[in-house]
What does this fold into?
Amino acid sequence: MPGYPVLPEGLAYGGDYNPEQWPEDVWREDVRLMREAGVNLVTVGVFNWGLIEPEEGEYDFARLDRILDLLHSAGVYADLATPTSSPPTWFRRRYPGSRLVDREGHVLGGGSRHSFCPSSPDYAAASERVVTALARRYAGHPAVAMWHVHNEYGWANAHCYCPTSAEAFRAWLRDRYGDVGALNAAWGTTFWGLTYGSFEEVEPPVAAPVGLLTGLQLDFMRFSVDAHIACFRRERDTIRRFCDLPVTTNFMIPNCKPMDYWRWAAEVDVVANDHYLDSGRAYPQIELAMAADLTRSVAGGRPWMLMEHSTGAVNWQPRNLAKRPGEMRRNTLAHVARGSDSAMFFQWRASRYGAEKFHSAMVPHAGTDSRMWREVVALGADLRELAGVRGSRVAAEVAVVWDWESYWALEFEWRPSADLRFRERVEAYYEALWREHVTVDFVHPSADLSPYRLVVAPSSYLLGEAPAKNLHRYVEAGGHLLVSYFSGIVDENDTIHAGPHPGALREVLGVAVEEFHPLREHETVTLEPFSATGRIWSERVRLAGARAVHEFADGPDAGHPAVTRHELGAGTAWYVSTALDAGSGLRGLLGRVLDGAGVSRPRGLPDTLELVWRGDHLFLINHGDAPVTVHGVTGTGVLDGAAYDGSATVPTGGVVVVRTA
Ligand code: GAL
It folds into this structure.
């Protein structure tokens, strides 16, 4: 990747900088405060299209020139954005064919961002022109350290159903299938007699009276990812004609379901992610950790950039909770612990106008005589101390399978139960592992699994033959695999694997499922011989090589296997056929599986302590309400300068980072 990392030294610290919303005397205060806080990188120009091209083909770069010069004079680098996520008002008026159309056929309005069709040729031409002008002008500007293309592809306009998109979809299908017979076979269109006579007959999956073909839905999801990637490539390749600085775009892992980030990762020079704390959750720090681990995994284990998070409340949740004292620091340092080489925020200074005026910022409306500003300055100091972690890697012995296509397909309509949710199961296993202090990578099921002692596949509903064989080979070669219910059911076209479920995994698991028995909304079942409960799901499992470890004590499958274990080759495959309760059930079982797989982890620590190794740095983040002493720690405290000789005590809500000897 050209020129990454972007800064000459240390971690990047800063945020989205929108000085165009302020008079110039505020800019001078901005750069003074940036220096005070240790800010060294800001994202500039991300929504500037209408400002730098006020009329089609007429450019005005005077303001951006002054901003970049000012940043340079203050020693702050720019992550220069292309402004194409927010087309100007003239564009919308002049090119009505580029307007975004939703599933119900509504043409979506302006006065907002992301309001364009990703397949529009007019959008392509206009965005290429503005990016060319921008890249030509600023390729050599000394403030520019990297390029930030667009903003959050696919977040608000993932799918467009306009006539242009429909035509582009048909072209995409022709390319994928060659002839319509192959498409019919893949989608199983003999069902309901929906056989297509030609590609011209295919419509995007717009709102239909009932039960859409699932193959059609899946391919439209794939097509839409490609449509956005094509937009990105056009801009990236335009920039590369003028300069070879790193080019990225900000992903939204894992909260933008329609974007398949395994596919996106290959396109960027450095993976960058935006993550906002879901403050409505009981333990939002666990979802944060999951997002960071998934981002690192998408980056192939390489360091990545946290491009946006928030100092405090956001403005778009039902209840926007302010972060408590110390919470921002814990959040930021958890991202760094899990592989981020940067800590960037949306945004530098809180806006007074528009939709986001109640969103927190590094400089809040309250100004610098505020707790938030003092924490921002202190965080800058922490990040300077942590310069030595830059570039280092996070090691994991456990992998969790994550496949966006399976996520989509599992949640199409008409599944055996509305309670089957991809993230529900992934998060249940992730939380249990987090509380066991086990760091995980996420993997696509066809990835190389040999580095891992244990692979967990929670609800891997869609699993093609090749990835299923990959899991099989992994176990035969000595790996440990733990699979939860409703996995390996369909292939890449959402067609059921022939024979009893779970078709793709029957052999490796040594079980056959005769019938699904989803549970009622609040119904639970009990497992024996250990007292655990299950929710959501139960099914009639027949042993076909595996042995039963636990049985259902009650419910529709009383007396039949609930958890099984299959020795295969040099490895072991476990199968769990219900949603085990998070406490003794899931963690109890997982503890035994981890032990069996030889996964190393500290014992006896409270399960609210986050513990992560990044290179030779040990990060200890205390989310609990009492101090925690961790034994076996020797080295230098990076944030506090302390010498740790055998143990480290982490204060309530505090963070200790030890560079180990
Ligand atoms: C992000 C977006 C930012 C800002 C932020 C608010 O998704 O990239 O521009 O809107 O959300 O949380």
User: Anything to note?
Assistant: The first helix runs from residue 24 to 37.
